[in-house]
Amino acid sequence: MTDACIVLCTCPEDAADRLAEALVEQKLAACVNITTARSVYRWRGQTESATESLLIIKVARSNYEDLEKRLHAMHPYELPEILALPVERGLPAYLAWLADPDADEPSR
Prior knowledge:
The protein is α+β, with helices and mostly antiparallel strands and 108 residues long. It is built from three helices and four strands, in the order βαββαβα. The relative contact order is 0.29.
C-alpha cells in the first residue's frame, strides 16, 4: 500500500476545468485528468442520465481530507460523488512526484 489514492468525482462539464485547476493550484492534488462520461443513476426516486465530466484526481492520502472539504465546497452538485480508491503500487518515481509535485527533480 502506498500513500497515494485516486479520487473520482463527476461534475458538470462546464465546471470541470475550474475544479481541476483549483485543486492543483491549491496543492490539494498533484494531477487531475478530465474525461467525459455518460452517467445513469437514481436520484430522488427517478432514473436520470447525464453527460458529465469525470475528474480522476491523484492525491497523497495525507491531503485527502483537505481535498474532500475543498472539492465539496466548490462543487455545484447538492450531493457530489467523491470516492477515494487506494493505490496499491505504482512506479516509485511517479509516487514520489505525487507526494511532492513541487520537488525540483523526481527521484528515479
